[in-house]
Design a protein that fits this description.
Layout (H helix, E strand, L loop, with lengths): L1 E7 L2 H18 L3 H5 L5 E9 L3 H13 L4 E11 L3 E8 L1 H18 L5 H4 L4 E6 L3 H13 L5 E5 L1 E7 L5 E7 L3
Antiparallel strand pairs: 1-2, 1-7, 3-4, 3-6, 4-5, 7-8
């Protein structure tokens, strides 16, 4: 089954992101994240891969998370990839980046995964919308630039498995990082 390892966004930032996803979808007609996919609000820590044994992954992540410490994360601006994906830019502290790097190394070692540029050159973000045409992206970006800059501070306090049993991603298990 296909899985992805994420930080699950909660609280006020989750509500803010969800509102922006719906608003930008309604403005631009780009409905994928808002209406066509039930992907929960998250920041990807390790891009999708396939596994068969969930228990092994659960045990690995439970032990890994329990040996970590919480670190701060900030959100202060919007960003985009190649004028296609618009997102909330997340600024992970040095400690939080180290947790992600060690998580990826642990998963690569345990599952003999090949190195992926997205994991190694990690650019943490919370996706808002895909602009599938230059015109729709212009609408999205103009709207986001008209908003007051976001201001969120939170702790990197969980590592979560999302699974994709069929068409839609679902939360499988959340592992809390102790204080």
């Amino acid at each position: 089954m296909k899985v992805v390892i994420v930080y699950l966004i909660k609280g006020e930032m989750q509500k803010y992101q969800k509102r922006l996803i719906k608003k930008t979808a309604n403005l631009s007609g780009e409905r994928y994240l808002a209406y066509d996919n039930s992907l929960p609000e998250h920041i990807t820590l390790k891009i999708p891969f396939r596994i068969k044994n969930f228990k092994k992954l659960e045990n690995l992540l439970s032990e890994f998370a329990s040996n970590q410490k919480r670190y701060p994360v900030k959100v202060r601006k919007f960003g985009n990839f190649r004028k296609f994906v618009a997102f909330l830019k997340t600024d992970f502290s040095r400690g939080a980046k180290k947790v992600q790097k060690n998580l990826v190394k642990t998963l690569y070692k345990e599952y003999r995964l090949s190195s992926q540029d997205h994991d190694i050159n990690w650019n943490p973000h919370a996706t808002l919308v895909y602009g599938n045409t230059p015109e729709s992206f212009k609408i999205i970006w103009r709207y986001l630039k008209s908003l007051e800059k976001p201001k969120f501070d939170f702790e990197f306090d969980n590592i979560t498995i999302l699974k994709k049993p069929k068409r839609l991603w679902k939360v499988h298990k959340v592992f809390k990082i102790p204080k």
